[in-house]
Amino acid sequence: MTWFIYMLCKHPDIQNNVAVEIRKATNMRNDAMNVEEFANNVSEEALEKMQYLHATLTETLRLFPVVPVDAKMCFADDVLPDGYGVKKGDMVAYQPYAMGRMKFIWGDDAHEFKPERWLDQYGHFQPNSPFKFTAFQAGQRICLGREFAYRQMKIFSSILLGCFMFKLSDESKTAKYKTMLNLHIDGGLDIHVFNRFR
């Protein structure tokens, strides 16, 4: 969620588009209300309408996966798709962080934050193969909590963006990641938060 807020601060037009979709999906007007009232309008039906929000969260995960490097242990001798042989007990690692930026996987705009890449011509979210978008792994090891994670992210972000606007404290600063098991922003994220109820 920190990377999500960071990317929205770097792309205020996208932040605004997400907020407009959220307010439309929850049938909320722009007159004054509080966070609790707004949260009560975030229903399952409303969440299903938030296709652009889903795409924006997914685009954030493409560029900033929670687990940037993942390793697996081989249980038996095998041959990888490229013909490389591995032996039982070998460690094989892949890098979702690097894969999310590879042009031969995502195209020439791989480094751009572009939620629209996840939407069809009607504005509906279209998932990619989990072997391409590896933030939740794939195959037999696909994350069992993927849908729950998306639901949590959508609830939390819809309330935040439905009620608040975010700006970086220092708009010239570029966030750097901290090398850990999970992908953290080094030094945290300093932001200004503004009330949307005005």
Automatic annotation (TrEMBL):
Tagged with keyword Heme: yes
Names of required cofactors: heme
Catalytic activity, EC: 1.14.14.145
Gene3D superfamilies named among the record's database cross-references: Cytochrome P450 (1.10.630.10)
UniProt entry keywords in alphabetical sequence: Heme, Iron, Metal-binding, Oxidoreductase
Molecular-function GO term, any one: iron ion binding
Residues where heme binds: C143
InterPro entries: Cyt_P450, Cyt_P450_E_grp-I, Cyt_P450_sf
Stored Pfam families: p450
SUPFAM superfamilies, per database record: Cytochrome P450
Family of the protein in this entry: Belongs to the cytochrome P450 family.
Name listed for the protein in its UniProt record: Abieta-7,13-dien-18-ol hydroxylase
Organism from which the protein derives: Helianthus annuus (Common sunflower)
